[in-house]
Write a structure and sequence with these properties.
Largest sheet: 8 strands, mixed, barrel
Number of helices: 21
Strand order of the largest sheet: 7-8-10-11-12-13-14-15
Radius of gyration: 57 Å
Number of strands: 15
Structural class: alpha/beta
Shape: rod-shaped
Distance between the termini: 62 Å
Helix content: 55-70%
Strand content: 5-15%
């Protein structure tokens, strides 16, 4: 509608412009016609009139000389009453005129003929006057000759005037008709345009009324929409509060080990994160796996439960005991002022707990216990763990961390692994392994996630847990990220796979890696085959950088997934702003979904919340058929874990690909 009206306004404008042009043209031509009349009068008629007047004066002068001559008259000297040069100028002026309405050659011929006749007349006139003065006997003959010349010139002059007047009048009449037609055309066009403008303005007024009504309706709609948005915001806030409450309840449950009811590793890490330095003691049953394998998991669980009770009886209630994993327990002292007391107490506790007696139907067993202690240290857990490993590898049941342990144990491991890692990067032995992700509705494998592997010189496959942290410390992490990402993109482009690549907050905040990823995507025709998995962690504090990165890569068709969702740092409101496509639910919930009602309820909450915002979900750590059935029953879209498939090299994936649908790949640490 707007384009149609604009076009008609343009036509009206052009019509006005054309009619104005015609009107101006008629005015200009009228003015030019007046100038033609003036020039004709000044440059043609006036010289011809003067020439005729002069001719008459000369003739009258000649006639007066024919009166009987007296002696006194003969004494009077008679002269021609004109200037010869002026006459020449008159003819020159007549010849130089540009007569638009006459044929130039004809006009010039007539003027030249008249000029020649004038010269003849001058000569005849002069001879006549001289004859009169001398009383020449040939006077009668000369007079007759002169009179013929005069009469002939007068006739030709009159004929020229009539010829010029006739043609000029015709020219004037034609021009007047043309100017009149142009003026009438301009007038008709202007009137027609005004009529069209009137009807168009009427239509515009109608449209304006409709537009005003539309704007009023739109304003009313916006008000109603704003009210709906406020209601939705209130609902979202209530929903988020409910999710937060349920999450806190589930996390509170998950903060305790279900076997011993002691606070678990997650609680321990949270507690430890509040203090830059701390004192830590770790307890571990030597060769516990042998008992577990020999007598079964139920016996192993009873051993853990009785050992936990024994620790609780032995260690003062001042300290909370944490069940980290398996047979490993810990206590922590965050107060630096009491670290000396903690050290002395650990020596006494070691005497009491270094042996543990267990009796059941299988017999009476004495289990040895190793302890590793770090006193008032930064990264105390790592250092206590280093002391524990030293205790288990030596004959000592209690080892306190010291710098000497780094020299004899940690440094040697790092040096060895640094050589292995550097060599693997140079020789391109950091390779992607692929773990399948199945669609729960059909059971088909539809995606794959890449897991980085280091292949050593003997062909052994080393998982990333043994080299990734070291790679960050020795500044090789960027090369590994680039290598895995490049190989993943090569697999996409060469085999048409749909792949996921996992990125950490460090990757996104690191400008060279970020620019490399964006440049690589820009050069690829298959960037829409890629999904980037962002690791949800407390490191992701600058959500604006992450959101800007996501907006950039989404321009190339890349999809976004949040990995390990629900691991303890979830902020669903912020995650929604990232415009993600997938949520990968943390494996700590999925692995117990078939045995722990709280874990199942928490997963159901996440699933419902994701569906509310059209986000697809992926369950990690699907390690059994029972877990898979629960995941599918809840409605989770995809499942991943050892029950689906273990990680495989690309060659095996290509073979599997002949039997399955196109795939998706990601780069991350190991998952079960």
């Amino acid at each position: 509608m707007t384009k149609n009206i604009s076009a008609r306004f343009l036509i009206i404008f052009l019509s006005f412009f054309i009619s104005g042009a015609f009107l101006i043209d008629s005015i200009l031509r009228s003015m030019e016609l007046n100038r033609h009349v003036e020039r004709y009068n000044e440059q043609i008629l006036e010289p011809l009139f003067k020439l005729g007047l002069l001719l008459s004066e000369l003739h009258h002068d000649a006639m007066r000389t024919l009166i009987p001559i007296t002696k006194e008259a003969l004494k009077v000297e008679r002269r021609l009453p004109y200037n010869h040069e002026e006459i020449s100028k008159q003819f020159t002026s007549l010849l130089s005129n540009d007569i638009a309405f006459l044929d130039r050659k004809t006009y010039e011929a007539q003027i030249l003929s008249l000029k020649n006749e004038w010269k003849v007349f001058e000569k005849k006139h002069e001879k006549l006057l001289k004859s009169l003065k001398k009383r020449d006997k040939r006077l009668e003959h000369l007079y007759s000759d002169y009179l013929f010349t005069y009469t002939n010139f007068q006739a030709n002059l009159d004929a020229l005037k009539k010829y010029l007047d006739s043609h000029f009048n015709d020219f004037i009449e034609n021009e007047k008709k043309s100017i009149t037609n142009t003026f009438y055309l301009a007038a008709v066009l202007a009137v027609s345009t005004l009529v069209l403008l009137f009807f168009l303005l009427q239509e515009v007024n109608t449209i304006n009324r409709k537009l005003k009504k539309y704007l009023e309706e739109r304003e009313d709609f916006q008000k109603r929409l704003a009210e709906a948005n406020r209601a939705l915001t209130d609902y979202s806030e209530k929903l988020e509060d409910e999710v937060k409450r349920r999450t806190e309840e589930a996390l509170d449950h998950l903060m305790k080990n279900p076997l011993t009811k002691f606070p678990n590793r997650l609680s321990f890490i949270k507690k430890l994160g509040e203090f830059p330095t701390a004192s830590i003691a770790l307890f571990n049953i030597d060769h516990f796996r042998s008992y577990n394998d020999l007598f079964g998991a139920k016996v192993g669980d009873r051993i853990i439960q009785e050992y936990a009770a024994y620790l609780r009886q032995t260690i003062p209630y001042l300290y909370e005991i944490y069940h980290l994993q398996g047979d490993e327990f810990a206590i922590v002292e965050p107060n630096k002022k009491t670290s000396g007391t903690f050290q002395a107490m650990m020596k006494q506790v070691a005497q009491l707990v270094r042996e543990f007696h267990y009796t059941d139907s299988n017999g009476n067993f004495v289990l040895q216990v190793s302890m590793g202690v770090a006193i008032d240290e930064e990264q105390a857990l790592n250092k206590a763990d280093m002391a524990l490993r030293q205790a288990k590898s030596s004959n000592e049941s209690l080892v306190f961390y010291s710098e000497a342990l780094i020299g004899t144990h940690h440094y040697l491991e790092n040096i060895t692994m640094t050589k292995v890692l550097s060599s693997a990067i140079k020789q391109k032995r950091i390779v992607p392994y692929f773990q399948a992700i199945a669609e729960t509705s059909s059971g088909k494998i539809v995606k794959y996630e890449v897991l980085a592997r280091l292949i050593d010189e003997e062909g052994n496959v080393i998982p990333p847990g043994q080299f990734m942290q070291l790679a960050k410390q020795i500044k090789l992490y960027e090369k590994i990220t680039k290598s895995i990402f490049e190989k993943a993109m090569d697999a996409i482009e060469k085999y048409g796979l749909h792949l996921n690549v996992n990125l950490s907050a460090d990757d996104i905040h690191h400008l060279p890696i970020r620019d490399y990823i964006i440049d690589r995507l820009a050069m690829s025709q298959y960037s829409d085959h890629l999904t980037l998995e962002l690791l949800e962690s407390e490191e992701t504090k600058n959500y604006e950088d992450v959101r800007a990165f996501i907006q950039r890569v989404k321009q190339y068709g890349v999809k976004i997934a949040i990995d390990d969702f629900g691991s303890g740092y979830s902020n669903f409101a912020k995650i929604l702003k990232l415009r993600i496509d997938y949520l990968k639910i943390d494996g700590s919930f999925i692995s117990k979904i078939d045995t722990d009602p709280d874990s199942k309820e928490f997963v159901e909450i996440i699933q419902k919340l994701a569906k509310t915002y059209d986000i697809e979900t992926v369950a990690e750590y699907v390690s059994s058929e029972s877990i898979y059935r629960e995941v599918r029953a809840i409605g989770i879209d995809f499942a991943q874990g050892y029950h689906i498939s273990k990680p495989k090299p690309l060659e095996e994936i290509l073979i599997d690909n002949t039997r399955h649908t196109p795939l998706s790949v990601g780069f991350k640490r190991d998952t079960g």
